[in-house]
Amino acid sequence: MKKKVVLVHGYNKNQKDMLVLKENLEELGYDGILVDLPLTFKRIKYCTSIFEKKVDQIIYNLCENEKISLVGHSTGGLVIRNFLSNIKYRDKIDRCVLIATPNQGSQLANIASKLSNTFTNVFKTLDSLHPDNVKDLGLRSLDPIEIGAIAGDKSNLILGKLLPEGNDGRVQVSSVKYEGLKDFIVVSHGHKDIHYNFKTAELVDSFLKKGKFEITL
């Protein structure tokens, strides 16, 4: 039986943005499941409530003792962490991977809020990414679920020049890392292509199988 992996897209995207990663993981032997969330005009907590309903249906159709893994890109990773705060899913969720996720919040969202409150009032998902609002999500580690994170350090986007530290053009490397991760790795990719690279899929595969990121030469 192929292991089921639910793939969660990021801010201002839809499930199509995770299609390449789905295909790459399926080449590695997984059953990828895509979901669509309103991660543009709605807050992360609201999107998490929708995600819970989708996962409930997936879990309902699982075989006995079968578990699913979760993989999220960017803001999708915060949805996963917010979702994992619900203890009722503890026995049905296996290892999870966050790719380029602003776990400490987005400094670009912070800059946007200073420039215009109107902008963040309209794009509520962006407002949710403000470092203070990420803290308000009350994210916590849920034993025994292991989480790994992959960050990119190729700042190949214009907005990346506004960030004072190493980043992938959108998210600082330091924001991806947080206490409680089982493993963490930095790869040389930008925010918009990190989840399209086959090497990233191989890293996801490594963590889901072994609980650590191993790079094969």
From TrEMBL:
<feature type="domain" description="DUF676">
    <location>
        <begin position="5"/>
        <end position="92"/>
    </location>
</feature>
<keyword id="KW-0378">Hydrolase</keyword>
<protein>
    <submittedName>
        <fullName>Alpha/beta hydrolase family protein</fullName>
    </submittedName>
</protein>
<dbReference type="InterPro" id="IPR007751">
    <property type="entry name" value="DUF676_lipase-like"/>
</dbReference>
<dbReference type="Pfam" id="PF05057">
    <property type="entry name" value="DUF676"/>
</dbReference>
<dbReference type="GO" id="GO:0016787">
    <property type="term" value="F:hydrolase activity"/>
</dbReference>
<dbReference type="InterPro" id="IPR029058">
    <property type="entry name" value="AB_hydrolase_fold"/>
</dbReference>
